[in-house]
Specification:
single chain; alpha/beta; Quinone Oxidoreductase, Chain A, domain 1; Rossmann fold; 7-stranded mixed β-sheet
Length: about 325
């Protein structure tokens, strides 16, 4: 079967499509014929050896899949021919993969494969962050840094689904996408005084007029982190989601002390392993909301497997406004 393999840690140029053996079928796993693979910035970092979760060479990119069950035990709860999606960490960019049944979720008929393949990481992270790692009260203000990327756009929608007042911080060319998905305001990431803008835009929202957002959802790190951190209201939560800027910020902990702030790490992959039932419930909620038209995942583009390096390049250059997907069929 065909698979995209990263054969060295020299970046996306080291990813090649080649023949690999079929997956071994252990009785407890389910063999899925992959139709679509969701790619993420973490795939770029893994190809450079810079991601915190190291993968042994050679490995396939792609942590999210959507496909068809080809082999399953009678006790797995799934059947041959069933459409399913899963988070697999990495290794998804191949024609077939063996997946533990606790990772799989059935795809509703109304949700396309290219959409389902982009649900687990972005929507799963936001649901875990906003429902498990902090609690958002209806009407509270949350600010999303890096709102124009796949993770940020999903967080906008999840925030609105939970009743939040959402401020989207993104490059100006991505403001329309943020507003289309429900953001109450879009803020230029290059604004000279992000702290004051965030405070001004909370006036009349969140129950504490003008005191700043209750929650910061930070997908990018870098220079935006400190002014956003300083903008938080007393008792606010700073959710550390990722570092798309490639710079890990240093936050002023004296501000955390004075304002009783909470810094929360959002390690969603660990949560998938530690709370599989909760993960499946989050995925079922997201897929049902998509089928009902309450969530609207954006697909930036779909590339065939033999052009996966082009797809990864879009992520590497920060050009994606939505999900980058590879079609394996």
């Amino acid at each position: 079967m065909k698979a995209a393999l990263c054969t060295s840690l020299d970046g996306i140029s080291a990813v090649h499509v080649t023949d690999v053996p079929e997956p071994d079928w252990a009785g407890g796993d389910i063999v899925v014929r992959v139709r679509c693979v969701g790619l993420n910035h973490s795939d770029v970092l893994r190809s450079q050896g810079r991601y915190q979760d190291k993968a042994d060479l050679p490995f396939s990119p792609g942590g999210e899949i959507a496909g068809i069950v080809e082999r399953a035990s009678a006790l797995s709860g799934f059947h041959v021919g069933q459409r399913v999606m899963a988070y697999v960490g990495h290794g998804g960019a191949r024609e077939r993969i063996a997946v533990p049944p606790e990772r799989l979720v059935a795809i509703p008929d109304a949700v396309a494969d290219e959409v389902a393949a982009g649900v687990p990481i972005t929507y799963g992270t936001a649901l875990h962050a906003f429902r498990d790692r902090t609690v958002i009260e209806p009407g509270e203000t949350i600010a999303i840094l890096g709102a124009g990327g796949g993770a940020g756009l999903a967080a906008i929608e999840v925030g609105k689904l939970l009743g939040a007042h959402v401020l989207a911080v993104a490059s100006r060319d991505k403001h329309v996408a943020c507003l289309d998905l429900g953001a109450d305001a879009a803020i230029d990431r290059d604004t000279p005084d992000l702290k004051q803008v965030l405070r001004d835009l909370t006036k009349g929202h969140g129950g504490r007029s003008g005191e700043g957002p209750a929650v910061i959802y930070d997908c990018v790190g870098g220079a935006l982190a400190e002014p956003a951190f300083r903008a938080l209201r007393n008792g606010g939560h700073y959710l550390v989601v990722g570092f798309a800027s490639r710079t890990v910020p240093v936050l002023p902990l004296n501000i955390a002390l004075v304002k009783a702030l909470t810094i929360v790490g959002i390690n969603w992959p660990s949560a998938v392993v530690d709370r599989p039932d909760g993960h499946r419930a989050d995925m079922a909620l997201a897929l049902a909301a998509i089928a009902a038209g309450q969530l609207h995942p954006r697909v930036h583009g779909v590339w065939p497997l033999d052009r996966i390096c082009e797809a990864l390049g879009v992520l590497d250059r920060g050009e994606a406004a939505g999900k980058v997907v590879v079609s394996v069929e």
